[in-house]
Design brief:
200 residues; 11 strands; single chain; three-stranded antiparallel beta sheet; Aminopeptidase; eight-stranded mixed beta sheet; alpha+beta
């Protein structure tokens, strides 16, 4: 069960370190629900990571400051249709909020071989950490390797930038279980208030 906490005085870095995740409708409202991250000090691509990279090499991406993305009614409609077809519980108002009024400041724009945009990854980057918060992709790609590549690429880029951690949001056997294969994967132990390596 989610536990919400107002964290107006703390920086995002402190909140993430304390196992908190930002709520999508209010950037100063955080919650606790099995936060997970990639410890970039322990960065090492495993065979599954390399398989994902190989299977998705036909896709290309551009990493942009979010301020440079043109968020208009056309983009909003596209994202809303994707979400609807994927049967996600993500209202259009929340989509607009995370793209225009939240703490996220970087977006990845992904294209296929035909140069058609097929995915967006919404992230927070600071000089110390990153957080891949939300991904949106064409419904036809929901069972492909691309959704996993979106997360893996943010981790790889964070390591190249010299960041300490890439936060990955929630983790459970039902939510984001693929994340356990990410480099340096850790989960937050709320009883001990520490980050621990995940044991499969």
């Amino acid at each position: 069960m989610k536990q919400f906490n107002l964290q107006n005085k703390n920086s995002p870095e402190i909140n993430y370190q304390n196992g908190l995740l930002p709520q999508r409708n209010q950037k100063n409202l955080y919650y606790r629900q099995t936060s997970c991250r990639s410890n970039l000090k322990n960065f090492l691509l495993n065979s599954e990571n390399r398989r994902i990279l190989k299977k998705t090499q036909s896709y290309s991406y551009t990493r942009l400051p979010l301020s440079k993305l043109k968020y208009d009614l056309v983009l909003q409609k596209k994202l809303s249709l994707w979400v609807k077809d994927l049967a996600w519980n993500f209202p259009t108002s929340s989509i607009k909020n995370v793209f225009t009024h939240h703490l996220f400041n970087v977006v990845y724009v992904w294209k296929n071989k035909q140069k058609k945009i097929i995915a967006y990854s919404l992230c927070y980057f600071s000089p110390q950490i990153s957080h891949i918060a939300y991904v949106f992709y064409h419904p036809e790609l929901s069972h492909s390797n691309l959704p996993i590549r979106l997360t893996l690429q943010a981790i790889i880029d964070g390591q190249k930038l010299g960041l300490k951690f890439c936060y990955l949001g929630r983790f459970s056997p039902d939510t984001g279980y693929y994340k356990r294969n990410m480099p340096g994967f850790e989960i937050y132990d709320y009883k001990k208030n520490i980050w621990i390596p995940y044991k499969k």
